[in-house]
């Protein structure tokens, strides 16, 4: 486990929830601030953006992904699409300050070395690396130099590629590493999620793990909490009908709040794993369980036979599991039908 700001991330700690604003601000700092407000209101731990210079991220001829074409409804180059979604470094300085004022952890994914340097310079507490850069060893090695916690998304990856990334970071002295299972499609179909792979990753590398969700709705992130996610990340937006590549696969404000509520309720319900009755069950136990009672009127001195025993509520007497210890014993007093028979009712 490790800390991001004042939050402990890892086993036995409350799930660290990241509200992924990404580029759903559409290049508008005012919309970005509204996303911060929404994240804060929902009760997440951190709000995350994406920091990049389009010129350093893509070539002019790189094409949009299929999901981007589908979600935007038109085809263009990645460069032209991303250029519309950039925020300036000055915007991010303002956003970081705004998050500090709102007491929510600011995070942003760098997509190039220059952006990583900038984010480190403004005091970002932890770095998130996108699925697309899991195999970008030069970027990983550079970010590792900051000696801050690093969260890796692992969409499109196999275990060997995840292992390479972890080894790279550890060789640079970084021990505070988390890996998020992910399916890199927007939205991701349920049959492609393979949620059990989250724990395969955690167990394979003995590492903090979690899930970055791109499915529709809130069911799967809540399910990931039940499976033991240490970190959960989910895209959100102010309005799914806004223009842009990620809005349709994002939660609206009410949904984000419901997701957080569902995750927190799931965490409470998980408990400590020890099978034991709760204090609230004691009254129900006495009402619902049964005690050993007489099936007929039995006189003092008579020997108890199996046919003399019955088992009825309430359960505040001798448990039916002790019935064999009564058989063949003599009663020390008269017992009426339905009266409880206890060890004090029989001779030693």
Automatic annotation (TrEMBL):
Signal peptide: none annotated. Residues 291-348 form the AFP-like domain. InterPro entries: AFP_Neu5c_C_sf, Aldolase_TIM, NeuB/NeuA, PseI-like, PseI/NeuA/B-like_N, SAF, SAF_AFP_Neu5Ac, SAF_PseI/NeuA/NeuB. GO terms for molecular function: N-acetylneuraminate synthase activity. SUPFAM superfamilies: AFP III-like domain (SSF51269), Aldolase (SSF51569). Keywords: Transferase. The keyword Endoplasmic reticulum does not apply. Its EC number is 2.5.1.56. It comes from the Bacteria. NCBIfam families: NeuB_NnaB. This is N-acetylneuraminate synthase.
């Amino acid at each position: 486990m490790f800390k991001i700001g004042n939050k402990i991330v890892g086993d036995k700690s409350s799930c660290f929830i990241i509200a992924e604003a990404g580029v759903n601000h559409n290049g508008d700092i005012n919309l970005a601030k509204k996303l911060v407000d929404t994240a804060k209101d929902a009760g997440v731990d951190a709000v995350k953006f994406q920091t990049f210079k389009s010129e350093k991220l893509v070539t002019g001829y790189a094409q949009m992904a299929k999901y981007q074409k589908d979600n935007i409804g038109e085809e263009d180059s990645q460069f032209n699409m991303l250029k519309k979604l950039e925020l300036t470094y000055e915007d991010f300085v303002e956003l970081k300050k705004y998050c500090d004022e709102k007491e929510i952890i600011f995070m942003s994914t760098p997509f190039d070395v220059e952006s990583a340097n900038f984010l480190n310079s403004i005091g970002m507490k932890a770095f998130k690396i996108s699925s697309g850069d899991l195999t970008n060893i030069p970027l990983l090695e550079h970010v590792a130099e900051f000696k801050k916690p690093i969260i890796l998304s692992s969409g499109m990856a196999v275990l060997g590629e995840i292992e390479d990334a972890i080894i790279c970071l550890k060789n640079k002295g970084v021990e505070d590493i988390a890996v998020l299972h992910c399916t890199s499609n927007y939205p991701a179909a349920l049959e492609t999620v393979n949620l059990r792979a989250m724990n395969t990753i955690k167990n394979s590398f003995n590492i903090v793990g979690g899930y970055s969700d791109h499915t529709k709705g809130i069911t799967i992130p809540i399910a990931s909490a039940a499976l033991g996610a240490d970190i959960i990340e989910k895209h959100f937006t102010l309005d799914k009908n806004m223009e842009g590549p990620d809005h349709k696969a994002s939660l609206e404000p009410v949904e984000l709040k419901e997701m957080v509520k569902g995750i927190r309720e799931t965490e409470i319900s998980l408990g400590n794993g020890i099978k034991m009755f709760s204090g609230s069950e004691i009254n129900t136990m006495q009402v619902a369980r049964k005690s050993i009672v007489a099936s007929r009127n039995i006189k003092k001195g008579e020997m108890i036979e199996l046919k003399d025993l019955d088992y009825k509520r309430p359960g505040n007497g001798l448990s039916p599991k002790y019935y064999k210890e009564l058989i063949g014993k003599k009663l020390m007093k008269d017992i009426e039908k339905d009266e409880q028979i206890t060890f004090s009712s029989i001779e030693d």
